[in-house]
Design a protein that fits this description.
single chain, 4-stranded antiparallel sheet, 0% helix, 36% strand, mainly beta
């Protein structure tokens, strides 16, 4: 049997804005690896940054672009197309209740909102259906919502399910 792993080494620089107020305000809040290409790595931060590495962590690029400067709750690479990437955001810390969910068709070089008719609550997680990037489910502070048309129209899931915060799908 082997002992504890003591040889952790960083594979990125600081992907946050750096320590401005205190370390707890500037942390990595979510990480993801593409299910289609293990060299594609993504990270989101509590201070609104999204970064990617397309070479297993050797080089990182900030791909925040036009995303709102808010807490990144989830970054997910598509299980269907290695160029598609999804990001969810919470603006509560800034008194922003806009439902933020974005899709990129080019691994984060550009972003488009796919929030459609989602209610004014934070989105905490996202799952993309294997086989179809138009079928998406999100965990929100008001339950789970799903779309079958890529985010134009969303419906709340669950018969008689109470309105509760859901943080993970």
């Amino acid at each position: 049997s082997s002992g504890p792993v003591d040889d952790w080494v960083p594979i990125s620089p600081d992907l946050t804005d750096g320590i401005i107020f205190a370390p707890r305000f500037h942390t990595i809040s979510t990480v993801a690896e593409s299910p289609l290409n293990p060299d594609y790595l993504f990270a989101g931060t509590s201070d609104g940054n999204v970064s990617r590495s397309l070479n297993g962590g050797s080089i990182w690029d900030n791909i925040t672009g036009t995303l709102p400067d808010r807490y990144i709750t989830s970054v997910k690479a598509s299980p269907n197309n290695q160029n598609n990437l999804f990001v969810t955001v919470s603006g509560y810390k800034y008194n922003d209740f806009t439902p933020h969910i974005f899709k990129s068709l080019n691994n984060g070089s550009t972003w488009n909102s796919i929030a459609g008719n989602l209610p004014q609550i934070a989105i905490n997680d996202v799952v993309i259906y294997p086989g179809n990037d138009s079928v998406i489910m999100v965990a929100t502070d008001g339950g789970v919502y799903a779309t079958v048309d890529g985010g134009q129209y969303w419906e709340r899931l669950g018969n008689n399910m109470p309105v509760v915060a859901v943080y993970d799908i």
